[in-house]
Design brief:
- The chain has 294 residues and is an alpha/beta fold.
- It contains ten helices and eleven strands.
- It has one domain (45-283): Aldehyde Dehydrogenase, Chain A, domain 1 (3-Layer(aba) Sandwich).
- It has helices at residues 45-64, 67-83, 85-94, 99-119, 123-127, 160-171, 186-196, 212-221, 235-244, 268-272, and strands at residues 9-10, 26-30, 36-41, 129-130, 137-145, 148-152, 175-179, 205-208, 227-230, 251-254, 275-283.
- It has a five-stranded parallel β-sheet, sandwiched between helices.
- A hairpin with a 6-residue loop joins strand 4 (129-130) and strand 5 (137-145).
Length: 294
């Protein structure tokens, strides 16, 4: 009798843990030949709420960390991804990517983490300013993280597209709730395992799998999500995001029709996409010739 293989059930990632979906549902993921290769959780509305709660709870610590420390953690993700590249290549290959294309995608993903790790302690110098004012004040404008960012990963890129949206949001001090590609979800959950082992604080990254059509309205309309980054191609989904996001004046960012392997897909300006500009006025103490202060 032929042996029946034990398929892995890819769980979701919330608050640094790997729970099964609250709904108890899953869907079988099949390869091009129609053979089931894994079981994948179908996340629910409650999973979205739990993920947002975890992200909000982690925001204060993550955003207050030294930029250099955030860079160290992102670089550690690159190191861990490099050491597990064979697993990622195999998963991409199982999901219909050729061996060479899968290897190139993993290499580009490692390089993208390194790229944004280097920008963690530099982007504020690039985008911050000292503004001229006609009064006795210093006036500074500096970028600060917007808060909890909802990310909808591109459907066609199971790893590199997700990394390209995650890395700039994390580099800027935001916490994230990401919805993985529905047809290529395996690398997203394996990436969560990498983060779990790379000093990423619990709740900073939360990854959900399942049907985007079910999860999109709940994540986009959530009143404790501050921004949404959309990496899909579906015009109807983008219109739905635009309709739901104004409920709490969310920032919406559209990142589609991209060649994720192109170096143009990485830029410090993508960090700025999920930043708010804070302007501070500071009085200047002056001393007159007579010695009095004003």
């Amino acid at each position: 009798m032929a042996r029946i293989p034990v398929l892995k059930t890819y769980k979701i990632f919330i608050g640094g843990q790997f729970p099964r979906t609250e709904s108890g549902r899953y869907y079988p993921l099949c390869n091009a030949a129609g053979r089931t290769i894994a079981n994948v959780c179908l996340s629910s509305r409650k999973d979205v709420r739990n993920a947002v709660v975890a992200a909000r709870g982690a925001f204060a610590d993550w955003s207050a960390r030294a930029a250099f420390n955030r860079g160290q953690i992102l670089y550690r993700m690159a190191e861990m991804l490099e050491t597990r590249r064979a697993q990622f290549v195999e998963e991409l290959n199982q999901q219909g990517i050729t061996q060479k294309a899968a290897s190139d995608e993993v290499s580009a993903s490692v390089d993208r983490w390194v790229h944004y790790a280097g920008w963690c302690d530099k982007y504020q110098a690039l985008f911050g300013t000292v503004n001229p004012v006609a009064s006795s004040h210093f006036n500074f404008s500096v970028p600060e993280p917007t808060g909890v960012v909802g990310i909808f990963a591109p459907e066609e890129s199971g790893l590199l597209g997700l990394v390209s949206l995650l890395a700039p949001a994390l580099a800027g001090g935001n916490t994230v709730v990401a919805v993985a590609s529905e047809s290529k979800p395996l690398c997203a959950v394996t990436l969560a395992e990498v983060m779990h082992a790379s000093d990423t604080p619990a709740g900073v990254v939360n990854i959900l799998t399942g049907k985007r059509s079910e999860l999109l309205p709940h994540l986009t309309a959530h009143m404790d999500v501050n921004a949404v980054v959309f990496g899909g191609h579906n015009t109807k989904e983008w219109q739905e995001i635009q309709a739901l996001a104004p409920g709490n004046v969310k920032r919406v960012v559209q990142q589609w029709n991209k060649n994720w392997n192109d170096s143009a897909a990485q830029s410090p300006y993508h960090i700025l996409d999920t930043q708010e500009i804070k302007t501070t006025w500071h009085p200047i103490e002056r001393i007159t010739p007579s010695g009095s202060k004003y």
